[in-house]
Specification:
Family: Belongs to the UDPGP type 2 family.
Keywords: Nucleotidyltransferase, Transferase
CATH topology of the largest domain: Spore Coat Polysaccharide Biosynthesis Protein SpsA, Chain A
Largest sheet: 5 strands, mixed, barrel
CATH superfamily of the largest domain: Spore Coat Polysaccharide Biosynthesis Protein SpsA, Chain A
Distance between the termini: 64 Å
Number of strands: 13
Pfam family, one: NTP_transferase
Strand order of the largest sheet: 8-11-9-10-12
Order of helices and strands: EEEHEHHHEHHEEHEEEEHHEEHH
CATH architecture of the largest domain: Alpha-Beta Complex
Low-confidence stretches: none
CATH class of the largest domain: Alpha Beta
Structural class: alpha/beta
Catalytic activity: alpha-D-glucose 1-phosphate + UTP + H(+) = UDP-alpha-D-glucose + diphosphate
GO biological process, one term: UDP-alpha-D-glucose metabolic process
């Protein structure tokens, strides 16, 4: 089995929850301070040993390619002004030895279809999938955990975490084999019997949600090609995963990091706040600003 060196980034979504900001700018380029959301996902993949980044794009997504392309004019201008540190930062957004491939998804037919669009670039190798909406922070990030798990047990593997009961209808929910332990240890493995896409709360087989990070064998492409449209008339990745799970070919790793749902406005704001608080350059001033604003609120100002 090949080592995982390829990652797919489905970035063709319209980002309607962030309109009008995303009318002309891809949601994946919304910044967390000064770094776009998608760059966090790319850095996570590269840290896990990925060398081929495959972006599945759509209309109005050219700016994503521009972000990861070299910009020699900008680099020259920064060097001419003596801003070498900033120039090197811009130059190294994509390190040497890492390749970017852009594939157009001509029609939005679902996440499963977006992943299938990557088949010509992936071939028959195993690969990772990262959804940029999910921002991960921590010492161990899920893509690294998935790649390491795949090295031991080379089969489709999901990153999962427990979600509140009221949120199960928002995710693909795992049907576990047997009974789940009372406490799920980050980084521990879970045997998967099936995956149910956005079930009603009463029908959910667990509170264990699959989200934003996966590794697959090329067998997923064979299933996606023959898959009938599911919920919303789209090719659902969860349906293909469910078929693999029924064959005993899916496992899961409990997410070892902190996850922020940057596809929601509040999740995006939470990510910004926590990233600021983790930054020594801004932390103290930001805390002072918040204390000042809270004091004014308490005073009724």
């Amino acid at each position: 089995m090949h080592k995982i060196t390829k990652a797919v980034f489905p970035v063709a979504g319209l980002g309607t929850r962030f309109l009008p900001a995303t009318k002309a700018m891809p949601k994946e380029l919304l910044p967390i301070i000064d770094k776009p959301i998608v760059q966090y996902a790319v850095e996570e993949a590269i840290a896990a040993g990925i060398t081929d980044l495959i972006f599945i794009t759509g209309r109005n997504k050219r700016a994503i390619g521009d972000h990861f392309d070299a910009n020699l004019e900008l680099e020259h201008q920064l060097a001419a002004k003596g801003k070498y540190e900033i120039r090197d930062m811009v130059r190294n957004i994509v390190p040497k030895g890492v390749n970017c491939i852009f594939i157009r998804q001509a029609e939005a037919l679902g996440l499963g279809h977006a992943v299938l669009c990557a088949a010509p670039a992936v071939g028959r190798e195993p690969f990772a999938v990262l959804l940029a909406d999910d921002l991960m922070q921590g010492d161990i990030l899920p893509t690294q955990a998935l790649v390491e798990a795949f090295d031991i047990n080379p089969q489709t593997t999901l990153s999962v975490a427990e979600v509140p009961e009221e949120d199960v209808s928002k995710y693909g929910i795992v049907r576990p084999k047997g009974t789940l332990p009372t406490t799920l240890v980050p980084g521990s493995s879970v045997d998967v019997a099936g995956l149910v896409e956005k079930p009603k709360t009463a029908d959910a087989p667990s509170h264990l949600a699959s989200f934003g990070r996966y590794v697959f064998t090329a067998e997923i492409f064979d299933l996606l090609r023959d898959l009938e449209p599911g919920a919303g008339g789209e090719i659902q990745l969860a349906d293909a995963i469910d078929k693999l799970a029924a064959m005993g070919k899916v496992s899961a790793i409990v997410n070892p990091s902190r996850r922020y749902d940057c596809g929601s406005k509040f999740g995006y704001l939470t990510a910004i706040v926590d990233v600021v608080l983790a930054n020594p350059e801004y932390k103290d001033r930001f805390l002072g600003l918040m204390r000042d604003r809270m004091a004014k609120i308490d005073a009724g100002a």
